[in-house]
Amino acid sequence: MDYPQPVHELINELKSLPAIGARSAERIAIWMLRDKRRNPISLAEALVNCEKEVGACPECGFFSLRGELCEICASKKRERNAVCVVEQAPDVMSLERSGAFKGLYHCLGGVLSPLDGVHPEDLRIESLMRRVDQMDGGEVILAIGAHVEGEATSNYLAELLEGKGVKVTRLARGLPVGANLEFADQLTLARAFEGRAF
Question: What is the dihedral of CA 86, 90, 92, 96, to 10 degrees?
Fold first, then answer.
């Protein structure tokens, strides 16, 4: 005894999503088939609409309606002399929710990782350089993860941006709020000392 083939296909599609394993995919599929509150047609239509209508902003790489600038790039209220470089589009939302940055963004689409076959030409580095060339001074903030590939990408970009007439900075690294020194690793402590401020 087994599920009909369409149910298997639904389970397989669901388990291909990040953070959803086989059991969770099966539970979701069964809920979608049995629960009176479900609306699988609306879910399918929303997915199809996103596929058809949503793409990458031609300027920064964040999500936008296909062929249009995103809300941030189109805004006249944003500071045009500050560009914050992030790994992926969802990183923009994390920074926006903080309310700490009022400039523009540039999504690389990943980080350099030669072992995984990700090289400079695979990322949106060339378009970043074009944007920087059009800036009149200002600042480029590297907000890339503090992992090995992120550090390599930040160092690579810092070298490329040298001599471009912009200030290049990185997000401060160090101890999170509420952390105890005894549990911090050496690299975190070193970064905390380098970026100390009051």
Answer: -150
Overall pTM surpassing 0.70 (yes/no): yes
Range(s) of the domain holding residue 85: 78-194
- How far does the chain reach from its first CA to its final CA, in angstroms? 66
Tell me, yes or no, whether 170 lies in a domain. Answer: yes
What tens digit of pLDDT does each residue of 93-125 get?
999 998 999 999 999 999 999 889 999 999 999
Gap between the Cα atoms of 30 and 94, Å rounded: 33
Integer Cα distance of 141 and 132 in angstroms: 12
67 with 87: CB under 8 angstroms? no
Placement of tokens 């045009």 in the chain: 80
* CATH number for the domain that contains residue 160: 3.40.1360.10
pLDDT at 197: 64
Inter-CA distances, 88 with 13, 38, 45, 107, Å: 23, 31, 25, 5
Total residue length of the chain = 198
The per-residue pLDDT for range 142-171, each reduced to its tens digit, is 999 888 899 999 999 999 999 999 999 998
